[in-house]
Amino acid sequence: MIRTPLRPLARVLHARATGANPDAIERENLSLRHQEMQVQARQRAEGRLLVLGLFFVCAFGAIIARMAMTAVSEPAEPVASVPGSAIAMQRADIVDREGRLLATNFETHSLYAQPPQMIDPIGAAEKLVDIFPDLDRERLIKDFTGKRKFLWVKKKISPEQLQAVHDIGDPGLMFGPREMRLYPNGSLAAHVLGGAGFGKEGVNAAEVIGVAGVERQFDDYLRDPANAGKPLQLSLDLTVQAAAEQVLYGGMKLMNAKGATSILMDTHTGEVISVVSFPDFDPNDRPRPPTSGFDPSDSPLFNRAVQGVYELGSTFKIFTAAQAMDLGLVGADTVIDTRGPLRWGRFAIRDFRNYGNEMSVTKIIVKSSNIGTARLAQQIGVERQKSFLETLGMLQPTPFEISEAAGGKPLLPANWSELSAMTISYGHGISTTPMHLAAGYAAVANGGRYVAPTILKRNGAQLGQRVMSEASAAAARKMLRKVVSEGTASFAEVEGYQVGGKTGTADKPKPRGGYYEDKVIATFASIFPAHDPKYVLIVTLDEPSIIAHGEERRTAGWTATPVAAEMIGRVAPLLGLRPQVEPAEVTGITLTSN
């Protein structure tokens, strides 16, 4: 800004020339300058007052808005905040193939204490022990009256317990929101679902994470907000699962078995419709893993369907027969030398009974001849047998999508010799899980293609590579049907459903090596209906033993087979299968001209 001089030279000279007083000019300019400064000062003061007024208007507006929000919001207990990353609480539901709920989320609360804010810590501790009898009264009083500023009292409480604690009225007892996993069907499908627990925890939230089963296998999917809460749909059928569990539990008790497992699998899609393992547990209150003992199967957490690695005995014989026929080495009616014992070095292979000097391949399967099957294995050879079992998925853990399946790795011979091939041909010397066996029998049932077992719902057939010809698979199915109609599995006959299958009884191995003399693993592997198989059913009993006809019976024909028959009779109608008359074999007809 350029100021005007108080005594401009031009005006002063003019005033002197005209006889005027030059000092009057200075007084006039000084007065004008003072007036200008007053105007500027007033403008600055008015601007400051305007800014201050706007600030107060905004401040009071924010206070009024906050008061309005508080007035219309729900009352809640004050909680302490903990710095750190946000805790994701959302988790998608799990449903069965029909959309019925298997696992969901449930809103509850946690209980924690801030002792410095407590009015009567000793009284509060005594009242809490009355509400939660599992709490230690002395420890609680020590924590409440000590130097601790924060402690968890209960990670999960019910609405009734919340109200009871609220009625204590101590300001040092506070509640935090929680989202817990709820399994509305209790122990149903417990080994499949697995269970969930808490990951990162804060007073305002807790992260729910899967700890076993599909909850752990698909943890990323279930926790991903991008799925918009879309449920995880399994292949299980809730009604079939409930029926299978009821039958298997009853069968396990009747047969005095230590444990049991069953698998019901679609032969074309690989969908596991039902999978049961006993003993089981309630995933709402999942027990802790055992910390001692040599036998993991003693724990209810042990999933026998995918973790139980057993020698499954004579159920493997159908694979040997099918491969021998597929290679063109034999036909269904080819006669095999079954004179025994069959010796290999210092080892001898014997049959359960003397079946004569020779038998057809069909009879070998029907009568379950170890010697006959070993003869077929000699013709097949070690490398071809090993390759065939690999295509059936018998040499690697199954791809079944639960976290425990990866631990069910088959036990193979260190040196796969000719003797190994002979014993493996009738299910000894190789240990696999019942889930491996289900996949193998599905290949026989669906016409010779491998299908991977899955716990997820599929649309349409999921057939993999061909492992045997359709003709060999069809011949093997006829053999399995004759095992039931004429052989060792006569108790598996279910009117209207034409069951085909094979029994298998193997001595149970000891945890530290060797075999028990009086304990077995009894298995019945079946397909139904045998003329057009839709499903595979595997039933395995651990250490069964019954008294029948005055004798102690442990073999699968007396134990696992009748349990499987009862299960098929119960679940087949639930699967939409109608009873039908078994198609008769077409006899040879010669056409002649008129």
From TrEMBL:
<feature type="region of interest" description="Disordered">
    <location>
        <begin position="278"/>
        <end position="299"/>
    </location>
</feature>
<dbReference type="InterPro" id="IPR036138">
    <property type="entry name" value="PBP_dimer_sf"/>
</dbReference>
<keyword id="KW-0378">Hydrolase</keyword>
<protein>
    <submittedName>
        <fullName>Penicillin-binding protein 2</fullName>
    </submittedName>
</protein>
<feature type="transmembrane region" description="Helical">
    <location>
        <begin position="49"/>
        <end position="69"/>
    </location>
</feature>
<dbReference type="Pfam" id="PF00905">
    <property type="entry name" value="Transpeptidase"/>
</dbReference>
<keyword id="KW-0812">Transmembrane</keyword>
<keyword id="KW-0472">Membrane</keyword>
<dbReference type="Pfam" id="PF03717">
    <property type="entry name" value="PBP_dimer"/>
</dbReference>
<dbReference type="InterPro" id="IPR001460">
    <property type="entry name" value="PCN-bd_Tpept"/>
</dbReference>
<dbReference type="InterPro" id="IPR005311">
    <property type="entry name" value="PBP_dimer"/>
</dbReference>
<keyword id="KW-0645">Protease</keyword>
<dbReference type="InterPro" id="IPR012338">
    <property type="entry name" value="Beta-lactam/transpept-like"/>
</dbReference>
<feature type="domain" description="Penicillin-binding protein dimerisation">
    <location>
        <begin position="89"/>
        <end position="223"/>
    </location>
</feature>
<feature type="domain" description="Penicillin-binding protein transpeptidase">
    <location>
        <begin position="262"/>
        <end position="564"/>
    </location>
</feature>
<keyword id="KW-1133">Transmembrane helix</keyword>
<keyword id="KW-0121">Carboxypeptidase</keyword>
<dbReference type="InterPro" id="IPR050515">
    <property type="entry name" value="Beta-lactam/transpept"/>
</dbReference>
